[in-house]
Protein 1
Amino acid sequence: MLYDVVIIGGGPAGLTAGIYVKRAMLKALLLERTGVGGQIIITDLVENYPGFLEISGADLARKFEEHAQKFGLEMQSMAEVSGIEEIGNIKIVKTTAGDFEAKTAIIASGTTPKKLGAKGEIEFTGRGVSYCATCDGFFFRDKVVVVVGGGDSAITEAIYLTKMAKKVIIVHRRDKLRAEKINQEHAFANPKISFVWDSIVEEIAGKNTVEKVIIKNVKTNAISEINTDGVFIYVGLIPNTAFANVKKDERGFIVANDRMETSVRGIFAAGDCRVTPLRQIATAVGDGAIAAVSSEKYIEGL
């Protein structure tokens, strides 16, 4: 079966692209390696997406999915993409669920949380080390947790953790946060949150579960310990683009122009996986719409 468009990734960018291509009456398939919705599924609260003063990430993802289903978008979950090959003008998207042929492909594969690289991180993953507060926060009710990072993800998740934990300690390698000002204000005003500045986590230690983190001050090189029951890590993102043989930057993010065109004709990129100055739901939605319209124009020219 030949599709007009195969969309790789079921987050806001991919689902929006799906809505637009189906409205254009194109035959489209969306592939998602886990569950449709992307990273926003594990976001506790969204309060900066227009039209919704407050909504959980899971509820917003569900609305996106329902909207795409209304227009008849075909979706295939548990399909991890391993590569995109070309035969003439046809793209062959190779996945664990089989190969899919299409005239165009839209890569909206998002990102994965970056590992900290500290000693003990891998050993204690699932035993006190986590990358998702909404997934694992419940297990730390009335306990002390450390959050590593200073961006929006770190700060919003730290605020969320205060609903369960009795104390949240944010460890940041700089002397000021990078998060949005409104998120910073919420964090600074929260009595359960404290900060350790200019510091990095050198080691995560314990017996069967996490018991402490060993930190180093990057200015004085002083070593100290923080007793904690858990460590939540938010130190950056890795793009899910290893399968894509297109031009990327040094970190692996796909280079695309303002029409979401990549270095390969007929392959487009949208959302967090591409080089962009802002990674938000609103920008992902915009990217997805542009990629879909660009795909339609490309197909018309074949």
Protein 2
Amino acid sequence: MFAALFLAAPALAHDAGKPTIAILRYGGTALTALAEKGILDMIEAYGLVNPQERAILDGAEDLEGERINIIYGDAGFDIPAANIMVEDALDRGADTLLTLSTPVSQIAANIARQMDDPPAIIFAIVTAPYFAGIADAPCIKDSHIAGTQTVVPYDDFVPLLKVQDPEMQVIGAIVNLAEPNSVFGAERITTLAEEFGMRVEVTPVVAIADLQLATASLISKGVEAIVLPAGYTTSIGLTAIVETAAEHGGIPVFSISAQHVYRGATVGADFYSLYREGVTAAGMLISHLNGDIDISRLSVNLKPGFTVAINLDAAAEAGVDIADDLLAMADWTIQNGESSEGVTPDLPEIGIELEDMSLEERREADLAFLAELYCTDEMIAEQQAKLAAADE
């Protein structure tokens, strides 16, 4: 099994020239920054870029380096721009697309399916790869696609509402129907909330300009908390949601993004750690470039994690008393503008550095990790059978 996945080669493939990698993101956020730091830390640790080249990449600029070329793309949270960005990267000769976010990964996968010789696609910060059609199952995907799934922990997130208020009955969710991760999240929140005896009022939005009215509408329906699934519209326009909730009687805002506490959310809880997601995606990329792995045999990585953050300043301003049990669950808090664990708004996680080890040790550890993702024939057959049964 190990031999089938790893085709050990000591040096970079692409003997005919330097590989060109496109790092493509939907837009710049603190979450994206964490994954990008993990990617760049790995690329530098493997010696693919030197410190001077790393400084260029930290500025999100294209690089024509000594060992590798990097194309940077940012769609500015715009779907048409994301389509153009992917096409442009392909036109510029990208060998591999490293796609960050569900929308960009979905677009890249759809475009690549129309190509006779598609580039490798390695995705990260994707919450719902199967719902979005990027893959069908962990081992059932296009042979040129691999990636790591950010497991948004709705099963752990929704119960926090009852920890805060055991008597809570009605919550409100805001969803953008054009965003697969937002739709998926709203569906999960609704299902789980009902299991806890809560009713969910869901209000759809199209643009950031709709958020203030949507929030006010939910509050008028008697919701006791605003709950935000993963989504770019609600993330960018979070301030409008928080301010409207505070103006209407101190309604707490629960977000499935811990870093949102820095922007006024009362409670943030999400996947941990996005930095490691970047490290994992970069490990796949580097091993692919080295010729060490056959990505067609890589399962989509799935490694759950959960972290809770609370903004005590925002809670006090909104007149919300945080329950002692919920406070005890917090991995970090914000009080008087300071984080209890030194977490920053730009990089809102703990432990965002690579382990100190030699290159040989790192390569051995990375290959051992990827070996655990090997898709056996039996796994593929089993997943195909489940998909077939579901279709029936």
Protein 3
Amino acid sequence: MKLSTKGRYGLRALADLAINSNGSPVSVASIASRQNISGNYLESIFSTLKKAGIVRSTKGVNGGYALKESADCICIGDVLRTLEGDLSIIDSDSIEKESGAKTLRMCIEENVWNVVSSRIEDVVDSTTLKDIIEN
């Protein structure tokens, strides 16, 4: 698994939002400026996060985005899956399922790739946005 800029920037933007919101919406422009990310790109990321129910938006002069839940309730795994999709390190569709005895390929998938993917998921699913901003 290699995270794209969408996942990396999205996580940075959410951390920035959590740090700078103080209970009120934060504009995409201010986050983009602090994080040196394109505002248009960041807007598309926030649109995806809004559809997933991770952030909410407020329109108007003092509008912007806010976390829909507290930072300790937002799991990094949910954010990354929303922005990146499946977090597996290999595409399971690319592994041929052969009948009969286990093949070497299937043994490596079960004993290495699936274990590594599971450990990655354990880490991102046990880490919250609050963990990131406190550390």
Protein 4
Amino acid sequence: MTVIVMLGVGMAAMGGAFFAPITIVHPAMGAEIITVAFVVVIIGGLGSFWGVVLAALLVGVVRGITIHFVPAAGEASIYVLMFLVLLFRPRGLLGERIEKFE
């Protein structure tokens, strides 16, 4: 297990070293992608693969339509969608009910 982790970390370091001369490298790289991925997982429901797939499609369509009509509200639309889904379905779209907590 340790060898696999070391191999993965080494490959990531090598990829970063090869990518650095091509583009600008900074500590906050990928923050935009991670934020959208977090929203997709929350909307889809924790523990639900198909919920995340459905949420990814929904977020992509909502964001694309919003950017087409109101470009300034494109980023905010996914958070409004997350708010609405959590307002009506607190577990997410296809999230499983956890008996221990409810």
